[in-house]
Every structure is written in structure tokens, then in C-alpha cells.
């Protein structure tokens, strides 16, 4: 209910800004259309590691190495802990502003923004989705993945920066092994074809706009569109000798959103004059995985990735990912993992447990939301509940 309240309060913010001219929002982060809770726990270094349902979006080539099928239906959500407190403060400010004059309202909102100067807030609304993967192929459907980022800073006076994405995604993936390098090499390629409908709001709202009027939500501030795109991946497991035979190295490369022609098809569900959202953004991921010797019930491995090469906000820090995963298995119906790592320069930790058909995944991770010259961590937490068949 508090999460739904947060979205309602966001609507109130826009309704109070209905008569103000829109100003483009600032955003220094790297937005990811789909993220795996398990991957985030190990630093999001997942390109060569991925062996579950999320293979469709992280590296479709790994579907060629699957031995069995998996149907996963999940509910996932995440947030910066302080986000809910901010929503409560906005609600209280709205109540106080009802009985004030316009200049007093503006000052009230200015005080709220100044209190949080430099703060970043993230909210990933509870998302339902389903993925079905088998050896060599998979299909995924995510009806509405809602991601909200808020920055409070000083531009022309106290300003609230809002970046809101609502993505609906349908994807199909296919993979096959290749014999180009001989029998001792395991090589595969894979492709994911996806259709994405996006609603996007990116606005900078000065305090005066927040206090100006109480019109209904101005849908002209939102942009929407439909696009189709393609991901291509390759995975290579070379033969290893000596000490390396115990580590079983794996290398992977993925090009995502390779077409990247933009959301040119607009059905105008939101508004007949709605514009085009930002493109998905062509980007490239490189990754490696290294297994460690198994012991007792544990199967450990670690990984290093360079992700999102080509993104406009990419930097060495924002593209660097590393992590480890300590996978454990007591029985076929009782297994899980512990994980940790570094995501964009900040620590991560994760835990997963499966009991029969029920799966729980939890992750804490830091995201870099600052500029190249001024680093800023946004500490986030994500929880995922799922049924696996």
C-alpha cells in the first residue's frame, strides 16, 4: 500500500505542475530495462554467469547450454529506503499548502527540496512477470516495469528532477551451439527479439511549478511509443589445462539494442500529442566467469564484467562490475546461493533460497548516479518472490 501511495503522490506532484512549461530533466545514471535480483547481489557481473530465466535479457547465447526447462512467475520490487519517507513528506507538504497563498506555497515546496539538496531517490514498483526457458529458446512477458528516479537539487532555484519509465516487454530468444573451433571448445550464439512499449516522463520541476495550481495530471508531459529491437550474444568455453582446468573459464560478449531506431510507433494511449521517449540505447557487455573447486554442498564461482559500453553516461566506474556467488544445494528441492560483489564502485550482497517451487531472492546494491567528477552512491534494496516450475 505504501508503494501504491508513492505512485499516487507522484501523480499529485505532476497535477500541481500542470500549468508549468516542461523543462527536460537531468539524468546521469544508466537506466537498465531489466535487472535480475540474483545478478545485482553479485555486482551485476552476470554476462557469462547467467544460467537461469534471465538469460533471455542478459545473454541469450547461454540458452544453448541449458539441460532442462524452467517456468518462472515473479513479483519483484526495489527502492532506496528513504524514498517512502520522501513520499510521506510530499503528502504532508500538499496538505499544508492547501490553505496557503501562492508565494507561501512556493516557499513551502522550496524548503522541502532544499532539505534534500543532493539526495537521490529510486523506486522500482512491484513488477509482475513470467519467463519460460528451455534448451535453445525462451520467451518472456513483463506487462509493466515501473522505474522512478528523483533528484532534488538547485538549477534555477530549488528543483525536483523526475525520470519515470513504464516499460511493457515481450521477448523471444533463440540459441544454438557452434562447432567453429573444434570439439574441445564450447561455443554458442544467441539472439533475443523484443518488443517494448514505453511511457516516459522526464521533467525538472521548480518549486514555483509545484505550488502553481491544482490541475489534473497534464498528460502532455509524458512521451510514449513502441519499438522492436535485437540483442545478440556469444559465449565461449575454451579447453583449459593445468591449474585453469579447475577454474573452467567462460567468456561472453553481448550487443544489446543493436537496432536502436527509437520508439517511432505511437498509439497515443496517453495523449494524442505525446512525443517520443528516449531510445533504448545501443550498448555492449563483455564478461568472464571463473569456477572454483566444489566443496561439500557448495559450488563457488566469480565473475568480472564491463557493461553498457556505448551508453551516453558510460564511464569506467559505471561500467565496472565484479562479484562472486556461493551456490549451495542440499537437495533438488532445497537450494540457494550467497553472493557479493562490486557494482559501479559500491559493495553488493545477495541471498537466494528455493524450497520446492517457491524462490526468494534478496539483494542490496549501490548504483552510481553522480557525474564523472562527482561520484554519488544510491543504496538500493530489491526483493523478488517467485514460483519456479
- Largest sheet data: 14 strands, antiparallel, barrel
Strand order of the largest sheet: 1-2-3-4-5-6-7-8-9-10-11-12-13-14
Radius of gyration: 22 Å
> Low-confidence stretches at least 5 residues in length (pLDDT < 50)?
1-10, 12-21, 213-217
- Choose one word for the global shape: globular
**Count of helical regions:** 7
The percent range for helix content is 10-25%
**What is the ordering of alpha helices and beta strands?**
HHHEHHEEEEHEEEEHEEEEE
**Protein structure class:** alpha+beta
**Mean pLDDT reading:** 86
What is the beta-strand fraction?
Answer: over 45%
Number of strands: 14
Q: What is the CA-CA span between the terminal residues?
A: 29 Å
What keywords describe this structure?
single chain, 389 residues, alpha+beta, 14-stranded antiparallel barrel, 7 helices, globular, disordered N terminus
Describe this structure in words.
- This protein has 389 residues and is an alpha+beta fold.
- 16% of the residues lie in helices and 48% in strands.
- It has 7 helices and 14 strands.
- It has helices at residues 2-16, 37-41, 55-58, 82-97, 102-115, 207-210, 316-319; strands spanning 70-79, 120-134, 137-155, 157-178, 186-206, 223-237, 250-256, 283-291, 298-309, 320-331, 334-343, 346-355, 358-368, 377-388.
- It has a 14-stranded antiparallel beta barrel.
Amino acid at each position: 500500500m505504501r508503494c501504491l501511495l508513492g505512485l499516487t503522490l507522484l501523480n499529485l506532484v505532476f497535477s500541481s505542475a500542470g500549468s508549468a512549461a516542461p523543462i527536460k530533466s537531468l539524468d546521469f545514471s544508466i537506466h537498465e530495462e531489466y535487472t535480475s535480483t540474483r545478478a545485482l547481489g553479485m555486482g551485476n557481473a552476470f554476462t557469462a554467469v547467467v544460467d537461469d530465466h534471465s538469460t533471455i535479457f542478459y545473454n541469450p547465447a547461454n540458452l544453448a547450454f541449458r539441460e532442462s526447462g524452467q517456468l518462472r512467475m515473479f513479483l519483484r520490487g526495489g527502492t532506496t529506503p528513504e524514498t517512502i519517507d520522501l513520499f510521506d513528506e510530499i503528502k504532508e507538504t500538499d496538505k499544508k499548502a492547501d490553505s496557503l497563498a501562492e508565494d507561501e506555497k512556493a516557499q513551502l515546496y522550496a524548503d522541502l527540496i532544499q532539505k534534500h539538496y543532493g539526495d537521490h531517490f529510486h523506486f522500482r514498483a512491484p513488477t509482475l512477470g513470467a519467463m519460460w526457458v528451455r534448451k535453445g529458446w525462451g520467451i518472456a512477458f513483463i506487462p509493466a516495469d515501473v522505474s522512478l528516479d528523483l533528484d532534488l537539487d538547485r538549477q534555477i532555484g530549488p528543483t525536483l528532477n523526475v525520470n519515470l519509465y513504464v516499460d511493457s516487454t515481450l521477448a523471444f530468444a533463440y540459441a544454438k551451439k557452434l562447432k567453429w573451433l573444434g570439439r574441445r571448445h564450447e561455443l554458442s550464439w544467441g539472439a533475443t527479439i523484443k518488443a517494448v512499449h514505453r511511457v516516459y516522463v522526464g521533467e525538472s520541476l521548480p518549486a514555483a511549478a509545484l505550488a502553481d495550481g491544482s490541475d489534473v495530471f497534464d498528460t502532455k508531459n509524458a512521451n510514449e511509443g513502441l519499438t522492436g529491437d535485437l540483442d545478440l550474444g556469444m559465449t565461449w568455453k575454451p579447453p583449459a589445462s593445468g591449474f585453469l582446468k579447475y577454474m573452467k573459464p567462460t567468456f561472453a560478449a553481448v550487443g544489446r539494442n543493436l537496432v536502436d531506431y527509437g520508439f517511432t510507433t505511437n498509439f497515443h494511449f496517453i495523449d494524442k500529442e505525446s512525443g517520443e521517449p528516449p531510445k533504448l540505447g545501443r550498448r555492449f557487455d563483455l564478461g568472464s566467469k571463473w569456477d572454483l573447486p566444489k566443496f561439500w554442498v557448495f559450488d563457488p564461482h566469480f565473475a568480472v564484467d564491463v557493461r553498457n559500453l556505448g551508453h551516453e553516461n558510460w564511464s569506467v566506474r559505471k561500467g565496472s562490475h565484479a562479484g562472486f556467488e556461493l551456490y549451495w544445494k542440499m537437495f533438488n528441492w532445497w537450494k540457494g546461493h550467497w553472493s557479493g560483489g562490486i557494482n559501479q564502485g559500491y559493495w553488493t550482497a545477495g541471498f537466494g533460497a528455493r524450497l520446492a517451487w517457491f524462490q526468494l531472492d534478496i539483494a542490496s546494491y549501490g548504483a552510481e548516479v553522480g557525474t564523472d567528477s562527482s561520484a554519488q552512491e544510491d543504496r538500493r534494496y530489491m526483493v523478488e518472490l517467485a514460483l519456479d516450475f
